[in-house]
Amino acid sequence: MSVAKNIEITSTSPSSFEDAIEKGISRASKTIKNVRGAWIKDQKINIDNGKATEYQVAMILTFVLDGAGDDE
Fold first, then answer.
1. Each residue's pLDDT tens digit in the chain (72 positions)?
2. CA separation, residue 18 to residues 1, 40, 66 (Å)
3. DSSP-derived 3-state class of residue 23
């Protein structure tokens, strides 16, 4: 049996939603082990002078807790 936890993060990129997703997952994976999935909860574009300046995503990451499934 494994036990997982969900956290919500927000990530931004000046170029695209896909880049914001990749950057968010990459950064979270540096401090959170066993990231197994992500759900994109929301997307937003910031606009300045009629042009998209920043792409923002809110996502929920799922990671498996260390030691989960061990008979303790």
1. 889 999 999 999 999 999 999 999 999 999 999 999 999 999 999 999 999 999 999 999 999 998 745 554
2. 33, 11, 29
3. helix
Cβ neighbours, 10 Å, residue 26 = 11
* Assessment of whether the complete model's pTM goes beyond 0.70: yes
| Number of domains observed in the structure of the chain | 1
Residues counted in the chain:
72
- In whole angstroms, give the CA distance from residue 46 to residue 37: 26
Tokens of 57: 């995503």
The single residue listed with the structure tokens 């030691």 is 67
Is residue 34 one of the residues assigned to a domain?
yes
Which residue type does 59 have?
M
